[in-house]
Amino acid sequence: MIEAGLGSGYLRLRNGHLAILYLKVCQIAGIDLFDTAQQYGNGNGERILRDILKSDSRVITKIGLNSHISTRIPEQIRWGQIFSAENLSDIFEHSLSRLNTGNCFGLLLHCYSSEYDFRDHIEVLKRIKEQGKVDKVGFSIDSITDIPTDYSWADIVQIPVHLIHHMNVNSGQILMVNGIFRNRIGLETLESYVRKNPTTHVIALMGSKNLFRVIASMRKISALQY
Q1: What is the domain-level CATH number for residue 29?
Q2: How many structural domains compose the chain?
């Protein structure tokens, strides 16, 4: 199955009132799943979402630096100090506070790297899930070199569309895919995957400052339902 979600990284660049109006229109169009991160605008992406969430809205947030920032910070410092396993729960609590909720649909490690040992972080994610503060846990990656050898623990894996045919997910895992509408090849790649894997749960993320492009993208995603 495939569904549309809205990537909200760009919301940090918008005026708050305009962003809320934009999100409300997207909700009217049928979007109820939103992807954000504590690093988007230093938490501003989460704060903006807080004002439009409904009881049936689903939010996936992420902890960790953006890829363009993290490449300048050694993994040991980034994950061992800034986002250590010991700090993970507290950082997530701040995200919940900004979202004004006691739980959310998903929590991911942002820009997961093959250069670091995440076993302690994964155990913390599992505990947060057991506490009922999040329904799904997982990670996001940007590069084929960062695909873990074993990611059976993850409920959600976020990837750019060009990696989709490199992923081997089981029936209970969700693939959240971004970068689909940057060019024609992205949509064709997604369509090819969905045809070959009709039972895999795919979340196709849309992210655009142009509302009309988002609505048009939704129609294209709907057309991929088989």
Answers
A1: 3.20.20.100
A2: 1
